[in-house]
Amino acid sequence: MSDTKGSEVRKDASRRDFLRSLMGGAGAASALTALDQLVAQPEAVLASYEAQITAAVAENGDLSKLDVIERMRAELLRALEKPSAERHWVMVIDLRKCVGCHACTVACIAENKLPPGVVYRPVIEEEIGTYPNVARRFVPRPCMQCENPPCVPVCPVNATYTNAEGIVEMNYERCIGCRYCITACPYSARTSDFGLMYGDGTPSADGLILGQDIAGGYERVANYEYGKTYSRDETFVSPMGNARKCHFCQHRILEGMLPACVTTCIGRATLFGDSNDPDSLVADLIASPNVMRLREELGTKPRVYYLT
Question: Phi/psi of residue 305, each to 5°?
């Protein structure tokens, strides 16, 4: 057993040496050194990051020197110290930085174990301009978390509602699957879970590397929404048969983690925080002259802002 483990360690070391020789440069070497440290001492590296955040907060609350992700996380932790009714979560999406990679869409599917047909964060692609001066624009579209949500009053069983923090939630156990809320949403931010699986229709037999039984294991792993655990092991139980939507990864927020779409955005185009904090990054951004919200004329008061 020890020889096998030693062989694996040597292979990992040789891979990193190969990457150093292939990539070269101070930046690549620095990144690989950081990778070595993270692999060897993950707890020490994470503790170091936490110490940097603590020091930045202690320095008159100045977080501007931090990386934008770490700044948002520090502001998130600060917001969590306040009563929930005093927090006002908002998301800011900088359309000038979005490259249409769909990393946020994939991260959301992985984080929330979304089945076929259920997408919380699609990225809409559109062509703008007049020929020959045309360009493509990418518009990520999560749930707007409206302050006046049209989806709430139409629900006949009060299965959808706004919580104390302003996030529009779903009560899967109460939802009867009528889909009135899906029709009422002017942003098409809700979809219905029909209980489908990606492995449906694939072969199932002994020896298959990715047969229905093995590949379907991932889909049957429980997801954690609204503070509860939901598994797809049983036959057609919640959230199967229910309307589903983005919830700003509330299960992550309450644990001091940013939404999955924020941390995976390669262009740092998606930003999140408490707009009731005047020193927060999002509070500064939503005061910009180039900010807009989708379909404001409907009076829905979305909590998702776009920079153009």
Answer: -110, 150
- Helix (H), strand (E) at residue 192: strand 190-192
> What distance in Å separates the CA atoms of residue 290 and residue 280, rounded to the nearest whole number?
18
The closest alpha carbon to 172, from 184, 151, 157, belongs to 157
Domains and CATH numbers, the chain: 80-307 (3.30.70.20)
Q: Long-range contacts of range 279-286, CB-CB < 8 Å, 24 or more positions apart?
A: 279/61, 279/63, 279/75, 280/75, 280/79, 281/63, 281/68, 281/71, 281/72, 281/75, 282/90, 282/91, 282/92, 285/92, 286/90, 286/92
Q: What is the tens place of the pLDDT at every residue in 5-14?
A: 555 555 555 6
Residue with tokens 């006949």: 156
Distances (CA, A) of 282 to 39, 99, 151, 170: 33, 21, 26, 26
Distance of CA 70 to the CA centre of its chain: 15
CA–CA dist 151, 192 (Å, integer):
14
Q: Which two tokens stand for residue 53?
A: 């955040």
Comparing CA positions, the residue from 251, 254, 273, 274 lying closest to residue 262 is 273
Whether this prediction's pTM lies above 0.90 is answered by no
For residue 252, give both structure tokens.
């992550």
